[in-house]
Amino acid sequence: MTDAKTMRAAVLADFGSLSVVDVPIPDLEYGEVLCRVNACGMCGTDLKIVNGGFKGTWPPSMPFILGHEWSGTIVKLGAGTEKSGLAVGDRVVAENHAGCSACPMCRQGRYNLCERVRDPGFKLYGHTAPGALAEFAARPAVAVHKIPDSVSDLAGALVNQAALTVHAGRRADIRPGSTVAVFGPGLLGLLMLQVARAAGATQVIVVGRGARLETALELGCDAVVDYEKSDPIVEIRRMTNGRGVDYVFDCSGNPAVVEQLFRSTRRGGKIAMLGLTGGKTATLPIDLLALDEIDLLGVRSSPNCYPATIALMASGAIKTEPLTTFQYSLDQIDEAFAALESKQVIRPIVLL
Ligand SMILES: [Zn+2]
Ligand SMILES: [Zn+2]
């Protein structure tokens, strides 16, 4: 790397506006590596952070650098990374945090539920610690994973979200030969359908509307239901001999569809919820939950899922090309955010 001391970054100095400015390249702490960021996607959480939706929590202070869905190349190894297996020149992706390694949840390997995540000084990158909408990012080596040549920089920027769907598949314990419905063909849903397929589901139905259903078919689902044209419950039951599917994955985050999720699930089936509602509450059909013994699962982040996710991408089981067509430069950051806000693009990705 060069001896430059500063880097360009998209900095949030006030809610509602990002500007590209020069900031210091981060110093490495013990156990950290420095990465040149290659690509960084932006999601609904970023948008909400920018607009002040998590005021006081994310970010804890300003100015702040966002961005947590990214890929990069290691340019420097810090002290204490000698046994990490990482080297300068490795192309990598990084988890947003690696837990505290001490609390009960971390000790069970469920570091996505780390009990110290809100403690002062805990680094949740892109939320409470500097993110990757910048030329460089420092990360603990334990949170960093190598990607092979067959996973592009653009695909790497989707590992964060794809890993969430892998965690969802594991939480639900998808069995070979099963039936699956995915509600919400946004980025998560379009990844979820592929992970369900890779886990052995033989019938995958995607519920949504508009052009994204075409993308869902392109990515390998068996059938789609446009909820503007027909009733998802009727259609899903028709396609499953009246039984409903074994697994439902909600990637919509729409509280209004909760009843549909339940009525699309077979007796003894499972519903996994990946989508967030932004604090809204839903009505729960308790009798169905109890009498049909439906398992309702929450899904957060992606503990221990990065290696499997990268392998699924490398093998071609997760395809990303149709999901990474909206690319921007750092100078186009406002355009990228406007595109995200308009919901016209699946995932804006900034190439750095
Ligand atoms: Zn995100
Ligand atoms: Zn912990």
Summarize the structure.
The protein is α/β, with parallel strands linked by helices and 352 residues long.
Detailed description of the structure:
This protein is of the alpha/beta class and 352 residues long. It folds into two domains: 6-157 and 324-351, Quinone Oxidoreductase, Chain A, domain 1, CATH 3.90.180; 163-298, 3-Layer(aba) Sandwich (Rossmann fold). It is 25% helix and 26% strand. The protein is built from eleven helices and 16 strands. It has helices at 44-50, 104-107, 153-156, 159-172, 187-198, 212-218, 232-239, 258-263, 286-291, 306-315, 333-342; strands at residues 6-14, 17-24, 32-41, 64-65, 69-77, 91-94, 136-140, 144-146, 179-183, 203-208, 223-226, 245-250, 265-273, 295-298, 327-329, 349-351. Strands 3, 5, 6, 7, 8, 15 and 16 form a seven-stranded mixed β-sheet that branches. A six-stranded parallel β-sheet has the order 11-10-9-12-13-14, sandwiched between helices. The protein has a three-stranded antiparallel β-sheet with strand order 2-1-4, with no helix packed on it. It is globular, with a radius of gyration of 20 Å. 48% of the residues are buried. The structure holds zinc ion (2 copies). One zinc ion binds next to loops.
Note the topology:
Elements: E1 6-14, E2 17-24, E3 32-41, H1 44-50, E4 64-65, E5 69-77, E6 91-94, H2 104-107, E7 136-140, E8 144-146, H3 153-156, H4 159-172, E9 179-183, H5 187-198, E10 203-208, H6 212-218, E11 223-226, H7 232-239, E12 245-250, H8 258-263, E13 265-273, H9 286-291, E14 295-298, H10 306-315, E15 327-329, H11 333-342, E16 349-351
Parallel strand pairs: 9-10, 9-12, 10-11, 12-13, 13-14, 15-16
Antiparallel strand pairs: 1-2, 1-4, 3-5, 3-7, 3-16, 5-6, 6-8
Helix pairs in contact: 4-5, 4-10
The chain binds zinc ion (2 copies).
